[in-house]
Specification:
With about 325 residues, this protein is mostly helical. The chain has a single domain, classed as Up-down Bundle (Rhopdopsin 7-helix transmembrane proteins), CATH 1.20.1070.10. It is built from eleven helices and no strands. Helix 8 packs antiparallel against helix 9. The radius of gyration is 23 Å and the shape is globular. It starts with a helix and ends in a 15-residue tail after the last helix. One of its GO terms (cellular component) is plasma membrane. InterPro entries: GPCR_Rhodpsn (IPR000276), GPCR_Rhodpsn_7TM (IPR017452), TAAR (IPR050569). This is Trace amine-associated receptor 13c-like. Keywords: Cell membrane, G-protein coupled receptor, Membrane, Receptor, Transducer, Transmembrane, Transmembrane helix. It is found in: Cell membrane.
Length: about 325
């Protein structure tokens, strides 16, 4: 997944300084103007810190307040956990800015394993979110009984466990013999077998993205038709019908909000995979690699901002947390909806 990107980052000019000056087998640093390097460091560090803090607020909010314990929010919690981890993984990317890896071969392998697992878990959670909204819109009467918190928790757990097992198996050789594919000291590279790579791309990218797009196209069609029906029959509904309309409106709003999350996710993630898949022997420029990596990380930073914009309860939760009202007895029962 990230092999070509990091390989590209390690490809530098011959005039670059060595990562380990005392060793002839050392890799070469990427040489940039000091101002450019500082700008990159500050930008990535800021995004990393904000990503960790904002997603931590989402995790605390959904975990603490009982009113937020819904099947859909369980999925948002899983997404926030993966985004929270991405914020920490950005530290490794910051270390690699100059094209040198100083943490050893084992940590390099661990970094890639975590990268694969968290990326796949995020995409898997997006698929579950799409399925959740599809069932809520297409089968509104069955949704409360078929989609329960326990079932969603089981699906999320299966998703994470499957991602861990799958990518530990795919990267097994790299973990057992860390650094076996490095060409110089200070390099961080992993290699996946050809067929395993094809399976991984299909499971982690092509398959999930196809499912997400198909489901949300169908959701959009239903949402448009229901919105027209609501507008045309709003004057003739009974009180009972009004209740049903309110429910439908809330589901449509949730679908629209999570649709924004999914679209932003696809915009940020697709370039990452496209550059990665641009060809085994083709040269990926350092600038394009850096751009898609930053775009990929930016998605984890944007998700909490989307919640803040579309979900009033998130703003209320932030106020309660920052003012330490969350420490008061019984705060978990507060009505923040």
């Amino acid at each position: 997944m990230a092999l070509l990107l990091f390989t590209a980052i390690m490809t530098t000019s011959e005039e670059a300084e060595l990562c380990f000056p005392q060793l002839n087998s050392s890799c070469r640093k990427i040489m940039r103007p000091h101002s450019v390097s500082m700008l990159i460091y500050i930008t990535l560090s800021s995004i990393s810190v904000l990503t960790v803090v904002l997603n931590l607020l989402v995790i605390i909010s959904i975990s603490h307040f009982k009113k937020l314990h819904t099947p859909t929010n369980v999925l948002l919690l899983s997404l926030a956990v993966s985004d929270f981890c991405v914020g920490f993984l950005m530290i490794f990317q910051i270390i690699l800015i100059d094209g040198c890896w100083f943490l050893g071969d084992l940590m390099c392998a661990v970094h890639f394993v975590l990268d694969y697992i968290i990326t796949s878990a995020s995409i898997g959670t997006m698929v579950l979110i799409s399925i959740d909204r599809y069932v809520a819109i297409y089968y509104p009467l069955l949704y409360p009984t078929k989609v329960t918190q326990n079932r969603v928790r089981i699906c999320v757990s299966v998703c994470w466990v499957a991602c861990v097992l799958c990518h530990c198996l795919i990267l097994k050789d790299n973990v057992e013999q860390p650094g076996r594919y490095n060409t110089c000291l200070g390099e961080c590279v992993v290699v996946i077998e050809y067929y395993a790579g094809i399976v991984d791309v299909f499971i982690s990218f092509i398959g999930p993205v196809t499912v997400i797009v198909i489901l949300y196209v169908r959701i959009f069609v239903v949402a448009v038709s229901q919105a027209r029906a609501l507008r045309s029959h709003i004057r003739d509904v009974t009180l009972q019908g009004s209740v049903r309309i309110t429910v439908k409106k809330s589901e449509l709003k949730a679908a629209r909000t999570l649709g924004v999350v999914v679209v932003v996710f696809l915009i940020c993630v697709c370039p990452f995979f496209c550059v990665t898949l641009s060809g085994g022997d083709s040269v990926v420029s350092v600038s394009s690699a850096a751009f898609v990596m930053c775009l990929f990380f930016l998605n984890s930073f944007l998700n909490p901002l989307i919640y803040a914009f579309f979900y009033p309860w998130f703003i209320k939760c932030i106020k309660v947390i920052l003012t330490l009202q969350i420490l008061k007895p019984g705060s978990c029962d507060a009505n923040i909806l």
